[in-house]
Amino acid sequence: MSVPGEIVLHVGPARAAWWQRRLSELLPGTPVRLWDAVPDPAAVTAAVVWKHPPGGLRRFPALRVIVSIGAGVDHVLADPDLPPGVPLLRITGEDLTQRMTEYVVWQVLALHRRGWELAAARAAREWRQIVTPVAGRRGVGIMGLGRLGGAAARALAGLGFRVHGWARTPRDIPGVTCHAGAGELDAFLAAAEILVCLLPLTPATEGILNLDLFARLPRGAALVNAARGGHLVEEDLIPALDQGLLCRAVLDVARIEPLPTDHPFWADPRIDITPHVASLIDPDTGARLIAENLRRFFAGEKLSDLIDPARGY
Ligand code: NAP
Ligand code: GLV
User: Which pLDDT score, from 0 to 100, does residue 1 have?
Assistant: First the structure.
């Protein structure tokens, strides 16, 4: 399988060579160039990117498609100087969904069973028994019922949790009480003792996790943000914990990544931090999905991972 022209790749240095090798193996005959080593920008027809420098895609006059290395495309759409009219694809797939489901189930179970209290007791050599309600008496709210949120909601419902979900448009997921739109947000929040954010970052969802929203949750709720740092108004989190609106937060993402070492979140024991690993795509799987999507794109076949630029996801 090959695609016409050349591919330019922009990804962090840790795995750039791995991505380049896997894409080259899967698309023999199609040169795959690293961002800073493109001999002929006019030969580039496809850009495969994670957080490329704004304006950088304008270098390629023959660009026909942009592919996000990831499910989220906010990092591409944040570029105010994107070449106009070039279609944007994203990565989805079973591995990405499975990894996110594992992460959400792990964090929700740990919060549900108050794992942090058990860890503190163990550190203090205390044999402290904690009685927690069974899953059927715990309300979990999933914001975003797409590929990732939908799968996480199903898995949690399968474990017996009372799962509520919130999306932009009405959804129907067995075992999940689905709410849609701004008009049903309050009913959704009122049921969410553990709130999980799996929304895409768009102008409509930026800053949605804020003090006002936390005040509409059951008092002492827990937060898991596995979507994007931009969803959280960071200045509101510690006040929400101090006021008892939240009891705990788990953050996989931050506005600035890596989270700066002097950020107050690191010093707060009520905040668990993971380094954007909830569902990190590996180049072996990701390159296979991208190669197949590029093949379909250049063959003019139907694509399920095409972004609607008006919706922003
Ligand atoms: P998706 O399939 O596009 O689903 C998005 C969901 O959010 C849909 O249910 C959509 O509603 C809903 N939504 C969008 N805008 C909304 C709004 N204004 N109000 C209410 N609901 C809204 O996305 P996905 O593949 O599940 O991924 C979600 C996000 O997860 C990505 O965008 C990315 O930022 C993040 N992510 C994080 C990691 C990580 O490792 N931490 C890994 C992968 C992805 P409709 O159903 O009505 O369209
Ligand atoms: C990771 O954050 C992704 O968007 O896939």
Answer: 77
Domain-embedded: residue 84: yes
Expressed as residue numbers, the domain containing 114 is 94-273
pTM of the model: 0.98
CATH of the domain at 293: 3.40.50.720
C-alpha–C-alpha distance, residues 252 and 103, integer Å = 10
Nearest Cα residue to 231 out of 259, 209, 212: 209
Cα–Cα distance, 91 to 99 (Å, whole number):
14
Asked if residue 308 belongs to a domain, the reply is: no
Indicate if the alpha-carbon torsion angle 120, 126, 127, 130 is positive or negative.
negative
C-alpha 287 to ligand 1 mean position (Å):
22
Q: Give a yes or no: residue 164 inside a domain.
A: yes
The answer to whether 142 and 177 have CB atoms below 8 angstroms apart is no
- Contact residues of ligand 1, CB 6 A cut-off: 70-72, 92, 100, 144-149, 166-169, 171, 198-202, 204-205, 226-228, 252-253, 276, 278-280, 313
Which regions of the chain are under pLDDT 50?
A: none
